[in-house]
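step: validate -> pass
step: tokenize input -> pass
step: predict -> running
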Amino acid sequence: MDWVTALGIVALAAGGTISAVVLVAVGSIRRSLNEHAVRQSQQIKRLTESVAALTSQQQAAETRIQQLSDANRRLAEELTALGERLSDGDTMPRHSRSARLLH
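step: predict -> pass
step: emit ->
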């Protein structure tokens, strides 16, 4: 074997080694990217579920606020009516106060 053949064998071995290292590196990078994509997909799913739950809670809260507002309005109307009745009752003379029993 002369030095040209030896150099060719060394070059082929180095090329094979470099190719193997590159293939392993590319495979590792692809696996890492796939794992990252899976994690992101899981995070997006959890966030979507959280948004749906919060939206549902917000709708329930808005419904409850509307119910409480309606109840407050009804109570205010009843209070106003009671106030009017009391003021009407105060202007009318009361016979029970003026009537006294004599012994």
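step: describe -> Helices lie at 3-91, 95-98.
step: cleanup -> pass
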